Amino acid sequence: MDNFISDISGQQFPSEQRILGASIRQPIFKLIKKEYPSFSKDKYIAASELTRFKETYISEFLKDESGQLSQLDQQVINSFKENKVISASLDGDNKESVSVGDRVADKVAEFGGSWTFIISFILFLIVWIAANIFWLNNKGFDPYPFILLNLILSCVAALQAPVIMMSQNRQEDKDRERARNDYMVNLKAELEIRELHEKIDHLIIRKEQELVEVQRDQVEKLSFLLKKMEKIEEAFKNK
């Protein structure tokens, strides 16, 4: 396996890791230049060495106005560095971390916001009113104007409102978590696209160099053949 010597560390690396300075993006090239002033665009650096400067550049890129990395940005950098996947799905929440009260609140809010609840409650009201007016001749357990029914409705509304608010608060927490997760996924995708562009640029420049070397070799061979043909022609003329 062919090796090359890095121009910044002087160590040997496989030729597959060789990266020309001209193929490095300008912001990262400036970071390398700042630490190694003698490095130029016609010199080479190893891919493993370039990774350290990429991490530094990403950290500087993600710093906010306070000059510090947020917790989300740090998580993105770690996942990018360790090549881990940021899951975009939050539906598989750990059910053990959800309390019984939260589960009840979710079920009550889910049932209270359905047509099943509306139709069932309308039927309940019709049966209650019909039982007291028609079957019991308005002398039943709750005669008109249905004071007991109003009391029950008030209690249901008083209990239902905070339960629905609890469920809404949990849903807002889930939405905030999804927003955070989407931000991290999008940010990592942007960083990976930037790195992909760098790799493509590096491949293009490397292929161009290989083509130049092939053309140079062909020109040398053609020159050699032309000189040999000239010598043969001179030999024939002398005869």
TrEMBL record:
<feature type="transmembrane region" description="Helical">
    <location>
        <begin position="147"/>
        <end position="166"/>
    </location>
</feature>
<dbReference type="InterPro" id="IPR010406">
    <property type="entry name" value="DUF1003"/>
</dbReference>
<keyword id="KW-0812">Transmembrane</keyword>
<protein>
    <recommendedName>
        <fullName>Cyclic nucleotide-binding protein</fullName>
    </recommendedName>
</protein>
<feature type="transmembrane region" description="Helical">
    <location>
        <begin position="115"/>
        <end position="135"/>
    </location>
</feature>
<keyword id="KW-0472">Membrane</keyword>
<dbReference type="Pfam" id="PF06210">
    <property type="entry name" value="DUF1003"/>
</dbReference>
<keyword id="KW-1133">Transmembrane helix</keyword>
